[in-house]
Amino acid sequence: MRYKKRKYFLAGRINLIQRSKIRELFEKARKMENVISLGIGEPDFDTPEVIKEAAKRAIDEGYTHYTPNAGIPEFREAIAEYYKTHYKVDVSADDIIVTAGAYEATYLAFQTLLEQDDDVIIPDPAFVCYVEDAKIAEAGIIRIPLREENEFQVDPDELVEAITKRTRMLVINYPNNPTGAVLKKKTVKAIADIAEDYNLYILSDEPYEHFLYEGAKHYPMIKYAPDNTILANSFSKTFAMTGWRLGFTIAPSQVIRDMIKLHAYVIGNVTSFIQIAGITALRDKRSWEALETMRKVYAERRRLVLKHLHKMPHIEPFRPKGAFYIWAKIDPELDMSSEDFADWLLENAGVVVIPGTAFGKAGEGWIRISYATDKQKLMEAMHRMNEALSKL
Known about the structure:
Elements: H1 21-30, E1 36-37, H2 49-60, H3 73-87, E2 96-99, H4 101-113, E3 119-124, H5 129-136, E4 140-145, H6 156-162, E5 167-173, H7 185-197, E6 201-205, E7 229-234, E8 247-250, H8 253-266, H9 272-283, H10 285-311, E9 315-317, E10 325-330, H11 338-349, E11 351-352, E12 354-355, E13 366-370, H12 375-389
Parallel strand pairs: 1-11, 3-4, 3-5, 5-6, 6-7
Antiparallel strand pairs: 2-8, 7-8, 9-10, 10-13, 12-13
Helix pairs in contact: 2-9, 3-9, 4-5, 4-8, 9-10, 10-12
């Protein structure tokens, strides 16, 4: 019997994953000159010096070996202390796993809790990784729209309508990427009650928790549905540590135990000296002072960008109260899709924005603008956009 020769073999499930439209746009922009990117969701600040010094000391002190799979005990204790201090939530260090950023935390949740024929509810629009994680888990995907008239909060009534007998998990991400929306306390409580009533897990992705404006507050889901919540968080945004790949998950004991098993075979453990730096990030007041400086700068940039966008033709911004993004509506009279509009701005203004459809079908007609870049570039980008749009 002869077998057909192939150069390579690929698992079928890998073809289910779509390449990020965000990355595709960046690659196109990279080939052009004099482009200003308002696309990437990454702080333009450097990691606070006190955190960098802690990592260097940790290397010199011999933190270059394996750690427990779940993470260094003192670091997990520091995370538990943080939730007690900031939110008055009691968390056991044993219910925490240190992950390679929130990306791994969400991946572990999908793989641990979902299987073929389970359903997961994902808002639309939503950050790009959730749908792809669901595909890898072979779960059914139910999208519920986030509506402008509801300030892009999840509508509890629509949530209940979307639940099926197969629904196992709901994804929540507030402060929200891409809209910058925050959840009101009553909505958090309503979602928590629904999860308990229908025996659902909530994957609550909360990396933008400290970037809040106009008196907005963050209410961690774990405070209201502790037995149903898998909380994913990251040091990337809070302490400008994107390249460090440091995050964590808090979950009920029976869930965290199995997430640790999977994590052990995926990466083993997060880099040891980076975990030590994480302890300093949480416990040293200089880290929090640096965060407050970042937040004030973002607040000023947000104010300036909103001011300029309100004066521009053919675009109308939603007023965000969290994160560092502006979700802006495209004039429907232009008869341009989100992708066409983003391409047009790149070609005619030399400015990168992200088409709303990168985050789901409900993002059609919108773009995401990041103000995580320095003020001078932001103002130049606003000038370019206004000049280009004024010619339409």
